[in-house]
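Please complete every field before forwarding. Incomplete forms are returned to the sender.

SECTION A: IDENTIFIERS
Entry label: holo-365
Bound molecule: guanosine-5'-diphosphate
Molecule representation: SMILES string

SECTION B: INPUTS
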Amino acid sequence: MANSEYEYVKREFEFDRRLPASNWIVVRIDGCHFHRFSKIHAFEKPNDENALRLMNACATSMLEKFPDIVFAYGVSDEYSFVFREETEFYQRRESKILSLCVSYFTSLYGMKWKDFFPNKDLREPPYFDGRVVCYPNMKTIHDYLAWRQVDCHINNHYNTCFWMLVKSGKTEKEAQQTLKGTFSKDKNELLSQQFQVNYEDEPAMFRKGSSVYRDKVETKVKTDDYGNPIKRIRLAITVSNLDIIGPEFWEKHQYILQEGKYRYEYVKKFDDIHRLPCCNWIVVRISACQFDQFSLIHSFDKPNDETALSLMNASASLMMEQFPGIIFGYGFSNEYRYDMPVQHICFCMERTLKNTKKTRIYFST
Ligand SMILES: Nc1nc2c(ncn2[C@@H]2O[C@H](COP(=O)(O)OP(=O)(O)O)[C@@H](O)[C@H]2O)c(=O)[nH]1
Ligand SMILES: [Mg+2]
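SECTION C: PREDICTED COMPLEX
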Protein backbone atom coordinates (compact mmCIF):
# COMPACT_ATOMS: atom_id res chain seq x y z
CA MET A 1 0.00 0.00 0.00
CA ALA A 2 1.34 3.41 -0.96
CA ASN A 3 2.23 5.71 1.86
CA SER A 4 0.43 9.02 1.79
CA GLU A 5 1.04 12.02 3.98
CA TYR A 6 -2.00 10.91 5.95
CA GLU A 7 -0.67 7.48 6.73
CA TYR A 8 0.58 8.73 10.10
CA VAL A 9 -3.00 8.65 11.42
CA LYS A 10 -2.78 4.87 11.41
CA ARG A 11 0.83 4.58 12.55
CA GLU A 12 0.55 7.07 15.37
CA PHE A 13 -2.98 6.60 16.67
CA GLU A 14 -4.05 3.00 16.10
CA PHE A 15 -3.04 0.84 19.01
CA ASP A 16 -3.89 -2.81 19.15
CA ARG A 17 -4.06 -4.08 22.67
CA ARG A 18 -2.71 -7.61 22.80
CA LEU A 19 -4.13 -9.75 25.53
CA PRO A 20 -1.51 -11.10 27.94
CA ALA A 21 0.05 -14.48 27.17
CA SER A 22 -0.52 -17.42 29.49
CA ASN A 23 -4.07 -16.30 30.31
CA TRP A 24 -7.45 -17.80 29.52
CA ILE A 25 -9.35 -15.37 27.32
CA VAL A 26 -13.08 -15.15 27.95
CA VAL A 27 -15.44 -13.27 25.66
CA ARG A 28 -18.84 -12.76 27.27
CA ILE A 29 -21.62 -11.54 25.05
CA ASP A 30 -24.99 -10.35 26.26
CA GLY A 31 -28.20 -9.51 24.43
CA CYS A 32 -28.87 -5.76 24.30
CA HIS A 33 -32.26 -4.74 25.67
CA PHE A 34 -33.43 -8.33 25.69
CA HIS A 35 -36.02 -7.49 28.28
CA ARG A 36 -37.79 -5.58 25.51
CA PHE A 37 -36.75 -8.02 22.75
CA SER A 38 -38.22 -10.98 24.67
CA LYS A 39 -41.50 -9.08 25.22
CA ILE A 40 -41.85 -8.04 21.59
CA HIS A 41 -41.27 -11.62 20.48
CA ALA A 42 -43.53 -13.04 23.20
CA PHE A 43 -40.93 -15.32 24.80
CA GLU A 44 -42.36 -17.68 27.37
CA LYS A 45 -41.73 -16.66 30.94
CA PRO A 46 -39.45 -17.15 32.71
CA ASN A 47 -37.71 -19.46 30.23
CA ASP A 48 -38.41 -19.80 26.56
CA GLU A 49 -37.05 -23.16 25.51
CA ASN A 50 -36.80 -22.20 21.83
CA ALA A 51 -34.96 -18.97 22.62
CA LEU A 52 -32.45 -20.89 24.74
CA ARG A 53 -32.00 -23.55 22.08
CA LEU A 54 -31.40 -20.82 19.53
CA MET A 55 -28.65 -19.38 21.76
CA ASN A 56 -27.15 -22.88 22.09
CA ALA A 57 -27.23 -23.43 18.34
CA CYS A 58 -25.39 -20.15 17.82
CA ALA A 59 -22.80 -21.13 20.44
CA THR A 60 -22.32 -24.51 18.73
CA SER A 61 -21.65 -22.74 15.43
CA MET A 62 -19.17 -20.47 17.22
CA LEU A 63 -17.14 -23.53 18.28
CA GLU A 64 -17.33 -24.87 14.72
CA LYS A 65 -16.10 -21.59 13.30
CA PHE A 66 -13.41 -20.79 15.88
CA PRO A 67 -11.51 -23.95 16.87
CA ASP A 68 -9.63 -22.07 19.61
CA ILE A 69 -12.83 -21.73 21.62
CA VAL A 70 -12.62 -24.72 23.95
CA PHE A 71 -15.67 -24.14 26.11
CA ALA A 72 -18.81 -22.02 26.13
CA TYR A 73 -21.37 -21.46 28.82
CA GLY A 74 -24.72 -19.77 28.32
CA VAL A 75 -27.74 -18.70 30.27
CA SER A 76 -30.63 -16.36 29.42
CA ASP A 77 -29.37 -13.85 26.82
CA GLU A 78 -25.67 -14.27 27.59
CA TYR A 79 -22.91 -16.61 26.48
CA SER A 80 -19.28 -16.88 27.61
CA PHE A 81 -16.65 -18.22 25.24
CA VAL A 82 -13.37 -19.51 26.63
CA PHE A 83 -10.37 -19.55 24.29
CA ARG A 84 -7.58 -22.03 24.87
CA GLU A 85 -4.93 -20.56 27.09
CA GLU A 86 -2.16 -20.38 24.50
CA THR A 87 -4.34 -19.24 21.58
CA GLU A 88 -2.67 -17.06 18.99
CA PHE A 89 -5.99 -16.18 17.39
CA TYR A 90 -5.40 -12.80 15.69
CA GLN A 91 -2.19 -12.53 17.71
CA ARG A 92 -4.43 -12.12 20.77
CA ARG A 93 -5.56 -8.68 19.57
CA GLU A 94 -8.41 -7.71 21.82
CA SER A 95 -10.50 -5.66 19.38
CA LYS A 96 -10.32 -8.34 16.67
CA ILE A 97 -11.30 -11.16 19.02
CA LEU A 98 -14.13 -9.24 20.63
CA SER A 99 -15.61 -7.78 17.46
CA LEU A 100 -15.43 -11.10 15.60
CA CYS A 101 -17.22 -12.97 18.37
CA VAL A 102 -19.95 -10.40 18.81
CA SER A 103 -20.62 -9.89 15.12
CA TYR A 104 -20.51 -13.57 14.21
CA PHE A 105 -22.82 -14.53 17.06
CA THR A 106 -25.26 -11.76 16.14
CA SER A 107 -25.34 -12.87 12.49
CA LEU A 108 -25.92 -16.45 13.53
CA TYR A 109 -28.79 -15.44 15.78
CA GLY A 110 -30.55 -13.70 12.90
CA MET A 111 -29.82 -16.50 10.45
CA LYS A 112 -31.03 -19.29 12.73
CA TRP A 113 -34.08 -17.49 14.08
CA LYS A 114 -36.52 -19.19 11.66
CA ASP A 115 -35.21 -22.64 12.59
CA PHE A 116 -36.44 -22.11 16.15
CA PHE A 117 -39.32 -19.71 15.61
CA PRO A 118 -40.83 -20.80 12.27
CA ASN A 119 -44.06 -18.97 13.04
CA LYS A 120 -42.60 -15.75 14.37
CA ASP A 121 -41.08 -12.98 12.33
CA LEU A 122 -38.07 -11.14 13.67
CA ARG A 123 -39.62 -7.78 14.44
CA GLU A 124 -36.46 -6.01 15.63
CA PRO A 125 -32.82 -6.72 14.90
CA PRO A 126 -31.23 -8.63 17.75
CA TYR A 127 -27.89 -7.24 18.86
CA PHE A 128 -25.34 -8.07 21.49
CA ASP A 129 -22.61 -6.34 23.43
CA GLY A 130 -19.48 -8.06 24.62
CA ARG A 131 -16.45 -7.83 26.81
CA VAL A 132 -13.15 -9.62 27.10
CA VAL A 133 -11.70 -10.72 30.41
CA CYS A 134 -8.43 -12.60 30.97
CA TYR A 135 -8.03 -15.18 33.71
CA PRO A 136 -4.48 -16.01 34.71
CA ASN A 137 -4.80 -19.61 35.91
CA MET A 138 -6.97 -22.70 36.17
CA LYS A 139 -8.51 -21.71 39.49
CA THR A 140 -9.76 -18.34 38.24
CA ILE A 141 -11.20 -19.72 35.00
CA HIS A 142 -13.03 -22.46 36.93
CA ASP A 143 -14.27 -19.86 39.40
CA TYR A 144 -15.43 -17.64 36.54
CA LEU A 145 -17.57 -20.45 35.11
CA ALA A 146 -18.84 -21.39 38.57
CA TRP A 147 -19.81 -17.75 39.12
CA ARG A 148 -21.94 -17.73 35.97
CA GLN A 149 -23.63 -21.02 36.91
CA VAL A 150 -24.36 -19.86 40.46
CA ASP A 151 -25.88 -16.72 38.94
CA CYS A 152 -27.99 -18.89 36.67
CA HIS A 153 -29.28 -20.87 39.65
CA ILE A 154 -30.07 -17.81 41.78
CA ASN A 155 -31.92 -16.03 38.97
CA ASN A 156 -33.79 -19.08 37.77
CA HIS A 157 -34.84 -20.15 41.26
CA TYR A 158 -36.26 -16.68 41.88
CA ASN A 159 -37.86 -16.33 38.43
CA THR A 160 -39.48 -19.79 38.64
CA CYS A 161 -41.17 -18.84 41.93
CA PHE A 162 -42.01 -15.34 40.73
CA TRP A 163 -43.77 -16.42 37.54
CA MET A 164 -45.61 -19.29 39.26
CA LEU A 165 -47.01 -16.78 41.74
CA VAL A 166 -47.97 -14.39 38.93
CA LYS A 167 -49.52 -17.15 36.84
CA SER A 168 -51.53 -18.22 39.90
CA GLY A 169 -53.16 -14.80 40.11
CA LYS A 170 -50.82 -12.58 42.15
CA THR A 171 -49.77 -9.21 40.78
CA GLU A 172 -46.06 -8.75 40.01
CA LYS A 173 -45.79 -6.49 43.05
CA GLU A 174 -47.41 -9.07 45.33
CA ALA A 175 -45.15 -11.81 43.97
CA GLN A 176 -42.12 -9.61 44.59
CA GLN A 177 -43.30 -8.96 48.14
CA THR A 178 -43.86 -12.67 48.80
CA LEU A 179 -40.30 -13.51 47.73
CA LYS A 180 -38.60 -10.62 49.49
CA GLY A 181 -35.95 -11.90 51.92
CA THR A 182 -36.59 -15.59 51.17
CA PHE A 183 -33.78 -18.13 51.17
CA SER A 184 -33.31 -21.07 48.85
CA LYS A 185 -35.04 -23.42 51.32
CA ASP A 186 -38.09 -21.12 51.51
CA LYS A 187 -38.37 -21.01 47.72
CA ASN A 188 -38.25 -24.81 47.50
CA GLU A 189 -40.96 -25.03 50.16
CA LEU A 190 -43.13 -22.48 48.36
CA LEU A 191 -42.81 -24.40 45.10
CA SER A 192 -43.63 -27.77 46.63
CA GLN A 193 -46.39 -26.61 48.99
CA GLN A 194 -48.23 -24.12 46.79
CA PHE A 195 -47.54 -25.59 43.37
CA GLN A 196 -46.55 -29.23 44.01
CA VAL A 197 -43.38 -28.60 42.07
CA ASN A 198 -40.02 -30.08 42.97
CA TYR A 199 -37.46 -27.53 41.77
CA GLU A 200 -35.00 -30.31 40.95
CA ASP A 201 -37.51 -31.67 38.41
CA GLU A 202 -37.47 -28.43 36.40
CA PRO A 203 -35.59 -28.81 33.09
CA ALA A 204 -31.82 -28.94 33.60
CA MET A 205 -31.32 -26.35 30.85
CA PHE A 206 -33.22 -23.80 32.97
CA ARG A 207 -31.54 -24.73 36.26
CA LYS A 208 -27.96 -25.30 35.10
CA GLY A 209 -27.60 -23.25 31.92
CA SER A 210 -25.91 -24.79 28.88
CA SER A 211 -22.31 -25.83 28.28
CA VAL A 212 -20.91 -26.34 24.81
CA TYR A 213 -17.63 -28.20 24.30
CA ARG A 214 -15.99 -30.99 22.35
CA ASP A 215 -16.85 -34.31 23.94
CA LYS A 216 -15.17 -37.63 23.31
CA VAL A 217 -17.57 -39.92 21.49
CA GLU A 218 -17.04 -43.43 20.20
CA THR A 219 -17.99 -43.90 16.58
CA LYS A 220 -17.88 -46.88 14.28
CA VAL A 221 -15.51 -46.08 11.42
CA LYS A 222 -15.59 -49.39 9.56
CA THR A 223 -15.97 -53.15 9.98
CA ASP A 224 -13.07 -55.60 10.12
CA ASP A 225 -12.78 -58.76 7.99
CA TYR A 226 -14.83 -60.73 10.54
CA GLY A 227 -17.68 -58.22 10.57
CA ASN A 228 -16.70 -56.65 13.92
CA PRO A 229 -17.10 -52.89 14.16
CA ILE A 230 -13.88 -50.85 14.38
CA LYS A 231 -14.49 -47.93 16.67
CA ARG A 232 -12.59 -44.72 17.13
CA ILE A 233 -12.85 -41.94 19.67
CA ARG A 234 -13.43 -38.58 18.10
CA LEU A 235 -14.32 -35.16 19.41
CA ALA A 236 -17.84 -33.92 18.69
CA ILE A 237 -19.30 -30.59 19.68
CA THR A 238 -21.86 -31.26 22.40
CA VAL A 239 -24.38 -29.25 24.39
CA SER A 240 -25.01 -30.37 27.97
CA ASN A 241 -26.73 -28.99 31.03
CA LEU A 242 -24.48 -30.39 33.72
CA ASP A 243 -23.06 -29.03 36.94
CA ILE A 244 -19.78 -27.24 36.24
CA ILE A 245 -19.29 -25.89 39.76
CA GLY A 246 -18.15 -29.16 41.37
CA PRO A 247 -15.01 -31.04 40.30
CA GLU A 248 -16.74 -34.03 38.63
CA PHE A 249 -17.32 -32.50 35.23
CA TRP A 250 -13.77 -31.16 35.03
CA GLU A 251 -12.21 -34.39 36.26
CA LYS A 252 -14.03 -36.23 33.47
CA HIS A 253 -13.09 -33.62 30.86
CA GLN A 254 -9.58 -32.67 31.84
CA TYR A 255 -8.56 -32.18 28.23
CA ILE A 256 -10.91 -29.19 27.78
CA LEU A 257 -9.06 -26.67 29.93
CA GLN A 258 -5.48 -27.77 29.46
CA GLU A 259 -2.75 -25.35 30.35
CA GLY A 260 -0.36 -24.54 27.50
CA LYS A 261 2.99 -26.26 27.26
CA TYR A 262 4.94 -23.06 26.88
CA ARG A 263 8.65 -22.88 26.36
CA TYR A 264 10.28 -20.24 28.46
CA GLU A 265 10.42 -17.75 25.53
CA TYR A 266 6.74 -16.95 26.05
CA VAL A 267 7.67 -14.54 28.84
CA LYS A 268 8.92 -12.20 26.10
CA LYS A 269 5.30 -11.72 25.07
CA PHE A 270 4.70 -9.75 28.24
CA ASP A 271 7.07 -7.09 26.91
CA ASP A 272 4.25 -5.18 25.33
CA ILE A 273 5.88 -1.93 24.29
CA HIS A 274 3.26 0.67 24.88
CA ARG A 275 3.73 3.76 22.73
CA LEU A 276 2.15 6.98 23.80
CA PRO A 277 -0.12 8.61 21.22
CA CYS A 278 1.27 11.60 19.35
CA CYS A 279 -0.22 15.11 19.45
CA ASN A 280 -0.85 14.68 23.16
CA TRP A 281 0.77 16.45 26.04
CA ILE A 282 2.42 13.91 28.26
CA VAL A 283 2.52 14.50 31.96
CA VAL A 284 4.63 12.37 34.24
CA ARG A 285 3.76 12.87 37.86
CA ILE A 286 6.10 11.42 40.41
CA SER A 287 5.24 11.27 44.05
CA ALA A 288 7.51 10.01 46.75
CA CYS A 289 6.62 6.87 48.63
CA GLN A 290 6.15 6.86 52.38
CA PHE A 291 7.42 10.40 52.74
CA ASP A 292 5.64 10.85 56.07
CA GLN A 293 8.05 8.36 57.53
CA PHE A 294 11.02 9.64 55.52
CA SER A 295 10.45 13.23 56.70
CA LEU A 296 10.08 12.04 60.28
CA ILE A 297 13.31 10.05 60.20
CA HIS A 298 15.15 13.02 58.66
CA SER A 299 13.56 15.55 61.03
CA PHE A 300 12.06 17.78 58.33
CA ASP A 301 10.57 21.05 59.58
CA LYS A 302 6.76 21.06 59.87
CA PRO A 303 4.64 21.87 57.89
CA ASN A 304 7.26 22.86 55.28
CA ASP A 305 10.93 22.16 55.25
CA GLU A 306 12.51 24.79 53.07
CA THR A 307 15.68 22.76 52.49
CA ALA A 308 13.69 19.67 51.46
CA LEU A 309 11.62 21.75 49.01
CA SER A 310 14.79 23.37 47.62
CA LEU A 311 16.22 19.87 47.14
CA MET A 312 13.09 18.90 45.16
CA ASN A 313 13.42 22.07 43.04
CA ALA A 314 17.13 21.48 42.43
CA SER A 315 16.38 17.88 41.36
CA ALA A 316 13.68 19.15 39.01
CA SER A 317 16.08 21.68 37.48
CA LEU A 318 18.62 18.93 36.88
CA MET A 319 15.92 16.78 35.28
CA MET A 320 15.11 19.60 32.84
CA GLU A 321 18.80 20.03 32.02
CA GLN A 322 19.15 16.33 31.38
CA PHE A 323 15.91 15.98 29.39
CA PRO A 324 15.34 19.03 27.13
CA GLY A 325 11.96 17.56 26.15
CA ILE A 326 10.58 18.56 29.51
CA ILE A 327 9.11 22.01 29.03
CA PHE A 328 7.54 22.67 32.37
CA GLY A 329 7.73 21.30 35.86
CA TYR A 330 5.53 22.03 38.82
CA GLY A 331 5.93 20.73 42.31
CA PHE A 332 4.74 21.06 45.82
CA SER A 333 5.31 19.10 48.97
CA ASN A 334 6.65 15.73 47.79
CA GLU A 335 5.30 15.74 44.22
CA TYR A 336 6.63 16.97 40.84
CA ARG A 337 5.11 17.11 37.36
CA TYR A 338 6.80 17.37 33.98
CA ASP A 339 5.23 18.13 30.62
CA MET A 340 7.27 17.02 27.63
CA PRO A 341 6.94 16.18 23.94
CA VAL A 342 6.49 12.56 23.05
CA GLN A 343 9.93 11.62 21.81
CA HIS A 344 11.56 11.95 25.19
CA ILE A 345 9.09 10.02 27.21
CA CYS A 346 10.62 6.55 26.99
CA PHE A 347 14.06 7.57 28.10
CA CYS A 348 12.67 9.78 30.74
CA MET A 349 10.29 7.11 31.94
CA GLU A 350 13.20 4.74 32.41
CA ARG A 351 15.07 7.23 34.49
CA THR A 352 11.95 8.13 36.41
CA LEU A 353 11.12 4.54 37.16
CA LYS A 354 14.59 3.95 38.53
CA ASN A 355 14.29 6.85 40.91
CA THR A 356 10.81 6.42 42.25
CA LYS A 357 8.42 3.66 43.15
CA LYS A 358 5.25 5.31 41.90
CA THR A 359 4.83 6.85 38.44
CA ARG A 360 1.65 8.00 36.75
CA ILE A 361 1.10 9.13 33.19
CA TYR A 362 -1.72 11.41 32.13
CA PHE A 363 -2.76 12.33 28.59
CA SER A 364 -4.35 15.64 27.76
CA THR A 365 -5.23 17.05 24.39
N1 LIG B 1 -39.53 -14.19 28.85
C1 LIG B 1 -38.22 -14.45 28.69
N2 LIG B 1 -37.35 -13.44 28.83
C2 LIG B 1 -36.05 -13.70 28.68
C3 LIG B 1 -35.54 -14.99 28.40
N3 LIG B 1 -34.20 -14.93 28.31
C4 LIG B 1 -33.87 -13.65 28.54
N4 LIG B 1 -34.98 -12.90 28.76
C5 LIG B 1 -35.04 -11.45 29.06
O1 LIG B 1 -33.78 -10.90 28.84
C6 LIG B 1 -33.34 -10.20 30.01
C7 LIG B 1 -31.84 -10.38 30.12
O2 LIG B 1 -31.32 -9.66 31.20
P1 LIG B 1 -30.39 -8.38 30.98
O3 LIG B 1 -29.31 -8.73 30.02
O4 LIG B 1 -29.99 -7.95 32.33
O5 LIG B 1 -31.40 -7.34 30.38
P2 LIG B 1 -31.30 -6.47 29.04
O6 LIG B 1 -30.35 -5.36 29.34
O7 LIG B 1 -32.70 -5.98 28.80
O8 LIG B 1 -30.80 -7.36 27.96
C8 LIG B 1 -34.12 -10.82 31.16
O9 LIG B 1 -34.33 -9.93 32.20
C9 LIG B 1 -35.43 -11.20 30.50
O10 LIG B 1 -36.29 -10.09 30.54
C10 LIG B 1 -36.51 -16.05 28.25
O11 LIG B 1 -36.19 -17.21 28.01
N5 LIG B 1 -37.83 -15.72 28.43
MG1 LIG C 1 -29.00 -8.47 28.12
